[in-house]
Amino acid sequence: MTPLAASKEALKICQMAPIVPVLVVDDAKDAQPLAKALVAGGLPALEVTLRTPAALEAINEMAKVQGGVVGAGTLLTPEDVIAAKDAGATFGVSPGATDRLLDACEDADLPLLPGAVTASEAMRLLERGYTMLKFFPASTSGGAPAIKSIGAPIPQVMFCPTGGVSISNANDYLSLPNVVCAGGSWVAPKDKVTAGDWDGIEALAREAAALPR
Ligand code: 3PG
Hints:
Low-confidence stretches: none
Number of helices: 10
Bound molecules: 3-phosphoglyceric acid
Structural class: alpha/beta
Oligomer: single chain
Shape: globular
Order of helices and strands: HEHEHEHEHEHEHEHEHH
Mean pLDDT: 98
């Protein structure tokens, strides 16, 4: 898959809803009900971070949920890419970008949302053909004003800010012309997942899905 095709696909996924839930799943048995609640609430694109032993099984379970588009986050190495693809992930997300990681995603036909927070990082990815990027960690990298500033000289790059985004500040990001969606973990808080409060999570998803952009 070329970087251009990968970014086109990543853009389509990012356009599905204003918010992409960033999920840390500790127990794979929670995966299906969690995905169902988020999809029912209007958030179909889901990022499962590869930060727990249950993550790959969770991706596999979530991929069975109708209407969901499940990706793997925290991709750091080529091995992560293969494992994510084998588990059924249809897209990948990385906090940054390395040549080895980009090569692996292109070879595996896994559309990637690579991370960048500076003009040089964005330019390097743009030079390679990537136009849909993650902006991480958003809040400590200058937040919405930084994305706005990068958009002046580099308007052809679109961003999905993640890290410190919440229901109360999401609009600062979503109102920018170079922000397609934002990522956030607040729609699936640990206490609600542990309690199996799927209705509560669906309500949080519904609120996030209604954010204007
Ligand atoms: C992450 O990769 O952990 C995301 O950026 C989530 O950040 P958040 O917990 O601040 O939403």
